[in-house]
Amino acid sequence: MEATYNKDRISEMPEEIVDQILSLLPARDAVRMSVLSKTWQQVSKKLLPPVVSFIFGKDFFKENSTYKLFEWNMRHTIPKKEHDRLLKLVDESLSKALVQNKNKVIVQKFQLSLPFPVTMVRKVASHVNRWLSTLVTRNTVDLLQIHFDECYHDFVEKLVLDVGRLMLRGVIMRKGLLGDDSRKLFCLRELSLDFIYIQDAKVLNDMLSRCPLLESIILRGIFNGDKDFGILQLCNFPKLKNVDINNVSGFSRIHIQVPNLELLKFSYLDWMELPIFCSVHLVKHLWIDYDIIATYPFIDKLISQIPVIESLFLENLKVDPRLRALEISSQHLKRLAMHFVTIEGQEGVINIHAPYLYGYSFKGIQVPTLHYTNFSCLQEVDLVLRPRNLDTLWFINLRKKLAVFDGLEADVTVTIDPFSWVRL
After folding, report:
1. Smallest Cα–Cα separation from 262: which of 234, 231, 287?
2. pLDDT at 102
3. pLDDT for res 192
4. Residues 6+ apart with CB under 8 A from 89
5. Which domain holds residue 365?
6. SS3 of 128, please?
7. Which distant-in-sequence residues (6+ apart) come within 8 Å of 348 by Cβ?
8. Residue 330 and residue 356 in contact, taking contact as beta carbons nearer than 8 Å
9. Torsion sign over Cα 233, 236, 240, 241
10. Any long-range contacts for 132-136 (C-beta under 8 Å, 24+ apart)?
11. Residue 266 lies in a domain
């Protein structure tokens, strides 16, 4: 019986049958099956599609440009014939690798970052649409990244792609961008939208609703003039682990209800004008980066809604003189990092109740006053200070603030930022 179990029956099959079986399997399944037999592995290497990557960006255009001193930051000085030549290079590269190859190709990356001004939008649009059509004809695409720095490009008529990761920058998002049907994009795992112009929140919400298996959502710089976008909804994503929302203050409200979210990051949002409803009980890492005062009550409320939070990063905070203290209370918090931009004359008071806090770091003008109930687990303290006046009084005040760590086993490191302006 033992000899029967160890026998490689696949190796005894005719090669034609093995070829037929592999041809019916998706590429990833065929790779996994290849570990069962040496014969299977040998045949799969012949049948599996080749993996290619296309990166048309700064380095590509510099290497292929007739202008050896071509500077990426001087896009508008490039002659029209040079623009035409760059477009032709991309056409030829895709044609050689995809069009002339009759077999299926796995495109691991397609990264496009074109240095074209507003005057060439229409011409670029026809090329980009043709490239996208070439990509999806017979091929599997893992990463699709389209990046424009200069302006919003209304180049994509329909973007129906079975891609694993989609990253867009400098694009106008209109209704029907993913096609007019309601087909779900089950392959899409990561979505990044940066410097995007949209008509209203419905366009974005419809797009998100068609990607139910997203694991990461990054929204940075979503604009629509002075209009009210409406409500942004991030709900019902069972596999979503990472949400990064940066500079999207045009929405009237943000509603986040994700059961398994692990990392939640807010940056440069107008907390005074933007109500945020969060139902994120399993978030382990919370990052808040903003520069609006009078926002501590929001932080207190948000932390209280996350019982299992392990890391809290607070950056670019302003101490509001009307608020007596910042309250941070969590039974699971292990790391706390803060970067204060203090108001002149305000030191800030922080009350911490985190019995399992392991690491604490702070960057700012002066150390805030800390009150804590239990720091028995604290092992690392890292303070980076940028004083305006480095004198005897400043050092005396620092010593008083550091006394809070006396008697603890924590390693305390104090660094005076050498690049800050100091008056001796």
Report:
1. 287
2. 66
3. 93
4. 56, 60, 64
5. 284-424
6. helix
7. 319, 326, 340, 342, 368, 369
8. no
9. positive
10. 132/156, 132/159, 132/161, 134/94, 134/95, 134/98, 134/99, 135/94, 135/98, 135/107, 135/110, 135/161, 136/160, 136/161, 136/162
11. no
Please spell the DSSP secondary structure of 129-171, one letter per residue. HHHHHHHHHH-EEEEEEEE-SSS-B---S-----EEEEEEESB
What confidence tens digit (pLDDT) does each residue in 81-119 have?
Answer: 667 777 888 888 888 777 666 667 778 888 887 766 656
| CB-based contacts of 4, cutoff 8 Å, min separation 6 | none
Q: What's the domain count of the chain?
A: 2
pLDDT at 423: 42
Model confidence pTM above 0.85: no
Structure tokens at 393: 């009084």
262 within domain boundaries: no
Q: Report yes or no on 137 lying in a domain.
A: no
C-alpha angle with apex 36: 34 to 37, nearest 5 degrees? 80
10-residue mean pLDDT series, the chain (424 residues):
53 68 57 53 56 70 48 48 76 78 76 69 75 74 76 58 82 70 82 84 85 93 71 89 85 83 80 64 83 57 80 78 74 88 59 91 84 88 86 87 88 79 42
**Amino acid at residue number 124:** V
What's residue 387's pLDDT?
Answer: 82
- Which amino acid appears at position 163 of this protein? V
Residue 83 contacts residue 116 (beta carbons within 8 Å): yes
Tell me, yes or no, whether 175 lies in a domain: no
